[in-house]
Amino acid sequence: MEKRTQEQNAQKRVVAVQEKKGLGISEILLIGILLAAGAVLKFFVGSVINFGMKPNFIIAMYCLVMLLIRPKVYEAAIIGLLAGAICQFFPGQPYINIASELVGAVAMVLLMKIPMKIGKFSLAPVVCTFLATLVSGFAFIGIMYLMYYTGADITPTPLAAFMAIIFGTATINAVIVQVLFPPLKLAFRRK
Prior knowledge:
The structure is a single chain. The chain is 71% helix and 2% strand. By secondary structure, the protein is mainly alpha-helical. The protein has one domain (22-190): Arp2/3 complex 21 kDa subunit ARPC3 (Orthogonal Bundle), CATH 1.10.1760. The chain has a two-stranded antiparallel sheet. The radius of gyration is 22 Å and the shape is globular. The N and C termini lie far apart (47 Å). The relative contact order is 0.13. The chain crosses the membrane at residues 21-45, 51-69, 98-116, 123-147, 159-181. InterPro entries: TrpP (IPR031360). Keywords: Membrane, Transmembrane, Transmembrane helix. It holds the Pfam family TrpP.
């Protein structure tokens, strides 16, 4: 009997680790807070900077949240749809943002899979955000012009104005995310 107890004690113990499924409450709250911050920035800063199209800071916020929580592709798609739905509360072409933010969010999460470290410094925040903003912006232009040429009752903004806004917004978003990512990453990891 004593030998059997020693054998049982000597057996390797296995700790079962349960795989995380879906986003937790803290991630969902972070998504809501950052998308709301993007909406506030879009409203107030967009009122000052307006060339027929307002810069979209909601993109910067969903890029930032994705860097922080590292969602799966389908979760990123949902975040993109939420961001597009929030954009519907602002003046502009209706419904186009839903598709363009979906494409931008999926692009962001896929771009994050590419290694972008130089030593200990990661270029992912600035590079991924810049490229995801471009993808979202070009998707917006493509959908808008497609709708225009198929007879939809919309007036497209001249392409040169779009290019300035898209590249300007991509640059601003990349800077915002690069500046905010390190302190938010530190705060988010401390929990």
